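sanity check this chain:
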Amino acid sequence: MESIIQKEKQCLVCHTTVGLHKHHVYYGPLRQISEKNGLTVWLCGRHHNLSDHGVHFDRELDMEIKILGQRAFEKEHSREDFIKLIGRNYL
């Protein structure tokens, strides 16, 4: 499914269009749920997992993106639906 968070295929953080990685906002056991529900974003390698500034190493960036994901989901669904799907509230 296409991302419900961003429309342009560019890094969410720095807006480059080079070397992009698809990041599942809720990963690990929730990776397939993220994919199925459009809870993905594009990140360059630096902002994904190739530096300390990447979402997998920067807790603040990770939380910002999780909040964006929840807000995007809740434009079409309820908070209760989000919590049932993801297991917690980030707002």
In short: DSSP finds four helices and two strands in the chain. The mean pLDDT is 96.
